[in-house]
Amino acid sequence: MKRFKLSSFKRVAALTFIMALLASIFFMMPSAEAQSKSRIREDARDTLQNLQEKNRSAYNVVQRAAGVLVFPKVYQAGIFAIGGEYGKGALMIKGKEHGFYRMTSGSVGFQLGGQRKSVILAFLTQQALNEFLNSKGWEIGLDASVAVITVGAEGNIDTKSLENKPVVAFVTDQKGLMYNLSLEGTKITRL
Questions:
Q1: Per the confidence metrics, is the pTM higher than 0.85?
Q2: How do residues 19-73 score in pLDDT, each as one tens digit?
Q3: Residue environment code for 146-181, b if the CB has 16+ CB neighbours within 10 A, otherwise e
Q4: What are the pLDDT digits (tens) for 90-142?
Q5: Helix, strand, or coil (residue 180)
Q6: Which residue in 7, 87, 102, 182 has the most C-beta neighbors within 10 A?
Q7: d(CA 166, CA 84)
Q8: Residues 42, 163: contact at Cβ < 8 Å?
Q9: Which of 83, 101, 99 has the alpha carbon at shortest distance from 182?
């Protein structure tokens, strides 16, 4: 069997091509939908309603929150060692839309393919919500610690995971609640 070797130039060209392909996949997905603010608002309301209907514990958490930031469609794509996520969402305070936001993150490590999920951030204290509203760009893990909700066997939320947590997150896909995910390094900025 003959081994195929790439010259340094060809390796750089191949890596550049792969990175360009990933960038086009990653940045074209959101623009392909061309979401207007009214579409984002509608999708955010539907996503939040769906979460609360499927899980009574989630309903209780959302009802006690000072504000809820809903990203109904977060696209995740990765190829080889580079990946990223992108989504648009709406902040809801007392049931009313209070602004639109963009969520982005990047990652390094083996990954291949793409998926779509929803991310719902519940600000459980007014102080946490105010800090978010007053920030120019808010990064999970740097500006705030966010606890990703864990769900028990019967679909109940582990309330111990909420203790002393000013911000909690629900992450869902088409199958339901996801867990053991990290949102660390995710950047959220106002549209």
A1: no
A2: 555 555 555 545 434 458 899 999 999 999 988 888 888 888 899 999 999 999 9
A3: bbbbebeeeeebeeeebeebbbbbbbbeeeebbeee
A4: 999 988 999 999 999 876 665 566 778 899 999 999 999 999 999 988 888 77
A5: coil
A6: 87
A7: 26
A8: no
A9: 83
